[in-house]
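Posting here for the record, re: iron/sulfur cluster.
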Amino acid sequence: MKVDEAKSMSKLRKIAEVVTKLFKIEKRNQANPLDILIATILSQNTNDLNSHRAFKNLKERFPDFESLADASSREIEKAIKIGGLARQKAKRIKELLIKLREINSDFDLSFLKGLSVEEGIKFLTSFKGVGLKTAGCVLLFGFGKEVFPVDTHIHRILNRIGIVKTKTPDETFHAVRKSIPSGFSYQLHTGLIKFGRAICRARDPLCGVCPIYKICEFEMKDFYKEKTKNLKIAKGSDLEFILLEEV
Ligand code: SF4
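Prediction output follows.
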């Protein structure tokens, strides 16, 4: 289905304002893009708090990329054990660093700054295991580019609200791309993840206390409004902690 860009952009601007205020979102300084890439691999299939512990362990054990690339997969696996799927992630991190070193001996990704978002995505997704969301996160958190990575939370919310009608996060990424108001990518990305954990949850969304209830087109919103009208919006570090904001 074709997205009405003007209508979607206006809704997304409103949502960005709401979530920025609600979660007190501030843009962080840009992190090292390779750290973002590694952290995103570590975040697969686990929560952000555990992947952050795994990331910190990894950085303590291997403070520079050279030593990490030269480490055995077994050593990397031990350092990231707390994040789950350690064997698979260790292998992926090592393969990524070795391939990157062949391209650029000092592991420097700063050349991506001068490329367009499309070119950056094309380069990053050429690495095994790096998908559209990960590539988008590297460009957003590592370079502050105008790109809006879509994870499962964001995909679910944008479909419920009626901004897109898509089947996968990657489809949503393409469908909504031109509707992201300029300068709001960071707030929308981080804000919607927090919003998806605290309010528009996968199960039992808190429609009864939702600040964007009026503009939402979810067909079950009245049912969930009634069901959740006496609940409070949950707060807590586990709900608001986003790994890539802490790298
Ligand atoms: S009204 Fe309900 S479904 Fe719609 S955005 Fe809010 S919590 Fe999500």
